[in-house]
Amino acid sequence: MTKPPAAFLAAAKDLLGPKGWSEDPEQLGKVATPWRGSFTGETPFLARPASTPEAAALVKLCAAHHVALTPQGGNTGLVDAGTPHGEIVVSMTRMHAIRSVDQFNNSLVIEAGAPLVTAQQAAEDAGRLFPLSLGSEGTATIGGLISTNAGGVAVLRYGMMRDLILGLEVVLPSGEIWNGLSGLRKNNTGYDLKHLFAGAEGTLGLITAATLKLFPQVQRASAWVCCSSTEDVVSLLALVRQHAGDTVTSFEIIPSGAIAMVLEDVPGTRDPLPSDLPWRVLMEVSMVDEAHARDALEKALEAAFEQDLVKDGVVAASKAQAQSFWHIRETIPLSKRAYGTSINQDIAVPVSRIPAFIESCNAAVLEVVPSAEFVIFGHVGDGNLHYSVCEPAGANAPVLKGHTPAVTRIIYDQTMAHDGSISAEHGVGRLKRDELANLRPLAATETMRAIKRAIDPLGIMNPGRVVSV
Amino acid sequence: MTKPPAAFLAAAKDLLGPKGWSEDPEQLGKVATPWRGSFTGETPFLARPASTPEAAALVKLCAAHHVALTPQGGNTGLVDAGTPHGEIVVSMTRMHAIRSVDQFNNSLVIEAGAPLVTAQQAAEDAGRLFPLSLGSEGTATIGGLISTNAGGVAVLRYGMMRDLILGLEVVLPSGEIWNGLSGLRKNNTGYDLKHLFAGAEGTLGLITAATLKLFPQVQRASAWVCCSSTEDVVSLLALVRQHAGDTVTSFEIIPSGAIAMVLEDVPGTRDPLPSDLPWRVLMEVSMVDEAHARDALEKALEAAFEQDLVKDGVVAASKAQAQSFWHIRETIPLSKRAYGTSINQDIAVPVSRIPAFIESCNAAVLEVVPSAEFVIFGHVGDGNLHYSVCEPAGANAPVLKGHTPAVTRIIYDQTMAHDGSISAEHGVGRLKRDELANLRPLAATETMRAIKRAIDPLGIMNPGRVVSV
């Protein structure tokens, strides 16, 4: 690890003030260790700017001294995008203010370092909804969520994080500030820069604030049903949307095997509706009028029973019951067997191809590891599956050991064969950069490289993530 | 106008075949004349490729010979983006096929030259909805709608055109084809190129096909109400959304003066609810269950009467009555006085600032032209107003003559003073390019220039639109 030049360090410390930087090995070690991962990065310097002008002056210093930087939010990423590998870390967590809320425009301006819950709470206080919701919402920051274009459990209805922003404030690699904090819903005045910075994982600029889109508050109706096959699950989604339209907010698939694992590993969980059938669907319809939502959901399920798409099911009678459904869904990633030693991928295919993908991918994996078990769960409505290959129940010795590269290759190839994506919501980072350079059309990778070179000619913004230049 | 080199013309004719090109002055004149505009462009050559490989080979030829091209769809643009000024024209209208429809994935793949109605019809045939809707839908093409990021009357609920695409196929300025026709809803695999080409007005590449997002079909409930002030109109929107959530699909404002003009100019129109109040709102709520939609709309209006936000109003009792409401709204642009000699701008401000903007902009215009009248209508839900300054009723001599530059300046300045945009849905083209270079933050314009140079280093793709390089 090369240390930044002394002149840079002196100027940066002077700029940031005593609270705004650290060279303490413990603190450096903390920001260099990803939340979940089998490796540790390294960084010589941690900067914690307190304002946009401070962040801009810091980036200007980096540019002048050719010092590379890695922006960091809540450090909950999964693809080695926000872990430093010799770069200085620019942590945004001191910038967490809500700058303004506009109820009539349904928007709020918030700084990049605020955790997602802050935005959710501010929306609620204003009688509105900020719909992004995911497991790490207490830690993941607005800037990180935008930079990774986060997904979560309400994408089917509200879209990804990029769809929930109206504007951005960004420090460009030159150190110039672009104030694009527009609260406008229509603004056709040139290339859409916010969509370029969203999902760029900090490689094109440092996001310092965002204008978020707010929505009307809604009431939820939830159901938990049992299905025989993934074909039935996909048909069920179409049927529910036929009855409830795009008010279907979540449509999550859970395999019965995952429920068994959760019951075993997580104290205090119970199966809402024990059944021998292989699949569960947790679905949610949300409308302003709770009676309308329940009515639409009940009519949809009635039709589903008639068409034999659903064998058993229950509509939550209370918020507590609905929460107990969600509890099962949300504790799957905590299950030791599903996540301790398993091979996990986050893939997407067109919704219509989910059954074929699962069938042929499982078969191909079983050819390599005949006793492997599978935990395949996630956002069917978005075609997004968390696909895990696990050790078999009660095995004496691990069967996956040594097979990770071969199994990963199979999952990637099967995903691509079904017109899918090997990174649905987790992103590229360093982890999938080279694999994606092979899988993406060359014309796309070359265009991305041209953009990176044009916007960050010195290559100081989170280098080596997304695309190599 | 410089003619392209003879070697280019010979090769292009050979490539495109007899049906694929024209040098006939009448045909060239037609594609060089914008739908609405006071000028005519010029072009030496019209190319009409029949397939993506043909389009790609043509662009490769253009690159080799440094021949600039202007892509053209339905030629309904309003900002001088698709009118050639010496460039060859690449008309996409021969590429109008629907390549595939996927009901379970809620997507369809369609070629760029198909008119919008083709997509709407294909969606309907599949039991789905493609929600983009605007006046020119019989002529405007998918490629043009994406390139200009079109808006229309359902943006409040469904977003702009860029929000309705899942993937694109684009011929890059090098002549390479980028096949990004993804049907995926989640695909975090690098910079989002589709959002870069959407709204780029053909300056970064030639869109040849798109994957569109389909939605569940819905039933509509419409109401026509009379309001005293724009403050009440903005409060009414919040109230209706409180009752109907994001199922409020349209929320259009119409001034009483515009109704008078339409009744005078357009045969067969009548005022649905004559009133002395200055403003009308045409609103639409759409849900799968028509009874739910009516119920939500009626409850909202009941509350609005109680809060005195609405003085008079009617919920459409039939589809025919709803259509008669929309007829008034849609014929405003046909009114001679509102559009014949008036000064028209397409602006957006945050919804909350609509009342203040209208008040101060009107006052500033009246200082210059004391007898001017105003027609201000459009998409309140999106903060998007079509702002027209008109000749006064029954005037003997035109009062606006000579004042266009001063009045336009006032509208631009007032829009910017209210954190708005001088191009909400119509785009930049050549018409607003230089004005926007002044109004946009310099950092944004410089970033756009860097992108243009990086992706189109030869400067052959619709040069001079969006940004000068």
List keywords for this structure.
alpha+beta; homodimer; 469 residues; 7-stranded antiparallel β-sheet; Alpha-Beta Plaits; 35% helix; Uridine Diphospho-n-acetylenolpyruvylglucosamine Reductase, domain 3; Uridine Diphospho-n-acetylenolpyruvylglucosamine Reductase, domain 2
Largest sheet of chain A: 7 strands, antiparallel
Give the neighbour order of strands across the main sheet of chain A.
Answer: 15-12-14-13-17-18-16
Structural class of chain A: alpha+beta
Query: Radius of gyration of chain A, Cα only, in angstroms?
Result: 23 Å
Q: What is the number of helices of chain A? A: 16
**Whole-number average pLDDT of chain A?**
95
Task: Report on the architecture of this protein.
The structure is a homodimer of 469-residue chains. By secondary structure, chain A is α+β, with helices and mostly antiparallel strands. In chain A, the strands form four sheets. Chain A has a seven-stranded antiparallel beta sheet, with helices on both faces. In chain A, strands 5-6-10-8-9 form a five-stranded antiparallel beta sheet. Chain A has a four-stranded mixed beta sheet with strand order 1-2-4-3. The longest helix of chain A has 17 residues. The first copy, chain A, is globular and about 70 Å long. The two termini of chain A are 21 Å apart. At the A-B interface, strand 9, helix 7, strand 11, helix 8 and helix 10 of A face strand 9, helix 7, strand 11, helix 8 and helix 10 of B. Chains A, B: Keywords: FAD, Flavoprotein. Chains A, B: Belongs to the FAD-binding oxidoreductase/transferase type 4 family. Chains A, B: One of its GO terms (molecular function) is catalytic activity. Chains A, B: Its cofactor is FAD.
